[in-house]
Structure prediction request, 426 residues.
Amino acid sequence: MNKLLKNAVAVSFILTSVSAADWPHFLGPNLNNSLLDEKIAKEFPGGGPKVLWEVDVNPGYGGAAIVGDELFHLDRVDQTFDVVSCRDLQTGKEKWSWKNEVPGRISHPGSRGVPTVTEDAVYATSGFGHVYCLDRKTHEARWVVDVVKRFDSSPPRFGYAVHPVIKGDLCVIAPTSDKIGLAALNLKTGETVWTSESFGDSHSSPSLMSILGKEVLVMPGDFNRETLVLLGVDPASGKTLFKYTEDFGTGIYNAIPNLLMLDENKGVFTAGYGKGTRIFKFSKDGGKIAVTKVAQFPFGDKFHIPLVLDGSLYITADADGRRSPKGFTTGLVSFAPSGEVIWSTGKTPYFNGGAIINLGGIIVSQDGDSGELRLIEPGAKYQELAKAKVFSKRTGDQLWAPLAYSKNRLVMRSQNQLVCVELQGE
Prediction:
């Protein structure tokens, strides 16, 4: 299994990148928050890393996408406007923006999704379910789809957090209605091409992955916040290839992280709210795919997929927020695919759902409480290489936005600022 883990990146797909240096969509170019060939210094210069620029943003959880020398992000202004902005990556100066009036408030207000950027367009989804296709040249909307109206749905408990998936001439989104789970839109017109069966509610996003040599769109969801649903469909037709369900029982569950394939027939799925982490095995079942749970561990990550480094898995774990029972594994956790915990930081530092990415074998993290930037050496024990505060203003709390990285530029978000930090090369 360890050998397969080392090669997990090989089964990912590069969807929209026009350059290997881009971070054009959620989870980065390889859909696993990892750039294996990137080399960064293992320490910060005196005084900490250089903050290249900082801009004020409204409260929210949406991260950035980077293509070339342009950065794209979604903001939510005054509980009234969705604003998609394009900024110069080097200076942070706004080059253009586009806004749509959508009045209203959702629990944990603010933006959610990461834009998906192609050579000629930007795709983004609002918390209320408006999908935007914007022309990068004219800065105008090619089309806008209100999924609530079109698919007779309603926003999930904490709003839509969908990152559009571009596959060929299709834009895949997740209306999450009672009858419809995923929907594929025509890239040019926004018209509906296909829909899939329902997977219940979800705060996750579809992701393309290779399973048994077949390209599959995978989406997690839940029924009544008590039953896990893992749906896999054909990206060309929306036809169901597998549908795994598991009763989580009483309590609560919100589907947020998606499946991460470790090789062609095994994947890891993690969840917060005390629901833990699972290893699934996939096998052929006629024209469909069978799913079997082969392992289960009590610790899990509420917001982010695991990182895979040198045969070990890494997550920022919680059992049920800070109410974890005594002795429960929390904080940044390193564990083997067998479930053996190699080490964990517990509540010092706790990380509280902060994002982590892998840059050339170094874990780069943003603390979910303080916003502090850390460089961490993976291995047999927790080894913090460097730590720095990079936000100049009050950060707020619940700093759960995903990170983005390109050309030694790391983009981080607090509840009040978007900052770009220089990470020096090795």
Remarks:
- The helical segments are 2-6, 147-150.
- The domain at 2-422 is CATH 2.140.10.10 (Methanol Dehydrogenase; Chain A).
